[in-house]
């Protein structure tokens, strides 16, 4: 798709230009957490909601941004979202909500997808989050400060990401 080719060029440029200091602070001192994920089904949505509750019980202020693919349902409408239509022909992100989300200097930003997409790589390159955490994928080191290799279920991924984030000192 033409739009995605331009998006990948923009992403590469953002990786070079984004001079945000990336570093983790101890989990116990962190205050703000961002979460990004792709809507897939009700089960994943409910597991993300539980993860958000867990972080909030730890005293974190949590903001969530979801990608809503075509033909998928936006369960509960409780989170901000963006779609493929929020990228123009030249690959520029036009969603005000997604742009505002990317401008937040989160202490931690969790990417909760098992598969990578050019849309989230673009958002990860753009973000001002200090520590970006996600599932390990070859060749995506520039997009994360912490990547976890997890081969189990989506719930296993959430539990593992949470476990290792809590151990950051």
Question: What distinguishing features does this structure have?
Answer:
169 residues, alpha/beta, Rossmann fold, six-stranded parallel β-sheet, globular
Q: Given the C-alpha coordinates, what overall shape results?
A: globular
Report the total helices. 5
- State the CATH class: Alpha Beta
Unreliable segments of 5+ consecutive residues: none
The CATH superfamily turns out to be Glycogen Phosphorylase B
Q: By helix and strand content, what is the structural category?
A: alpha/beta
Number of domains: 1
Strand count: 6
Sheet of most strands: 6 strands, parallel
- Integer-rounded radius of gyration: 15 Å
Proportion in β-strands: 15-25%
CATH topology: Rossmann fold
In the CATH hierarchy, what is the architecture at level 2?
Answer: 3-Layer(aba) Sandwich
Question: Average pLDDT across residues?
Answer: 93
Distance between the termini: 42 Å
Q: SSE order, as H and E?
A: HEHEEHEHEEH
Give the strand order of the largest sheet, numbering strands 1, 2, ... along the chain.
3-2-1-4-5-6
Q: Into which percent range does the helicity of residues fall?
A: 25-40%
């Amino acid at each position: 798709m033409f739009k995605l080719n331009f998006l990948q060029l923009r992403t590469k440029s953002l990786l070079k230009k984004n001079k945000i200091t990336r570093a983790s602070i101890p989990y116990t001192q962190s205050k703000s957490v961002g979460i990004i994920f792709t809507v897939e089904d009700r089960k994943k949505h409910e597991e993300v909601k539980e993860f958000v509750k867990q972080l909030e019980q730890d005293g974190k202020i949590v903001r969530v941004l979801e990608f809503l693919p075509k033909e998928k349902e936006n369960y509960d409408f409780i989170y901000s979202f963006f779609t493929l239509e929020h990228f123009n022909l030249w690959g520029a992100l036009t969603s005000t909500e997604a742009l505002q989300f990317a401008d937040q200097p989160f202490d931690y930003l969790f990417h909760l997808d098992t598969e990578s997409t050019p849309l989230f790589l673009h958002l990860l390159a753009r973000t001002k989050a200090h520590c970006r955490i996600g599932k390990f994928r070859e060749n995506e080191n520039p997009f994360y400060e912490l990547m976890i290799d997890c081969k189990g279920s989506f719930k296993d991924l959430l539990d593992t990401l949470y476990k290792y984030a809590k151990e950051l000192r």
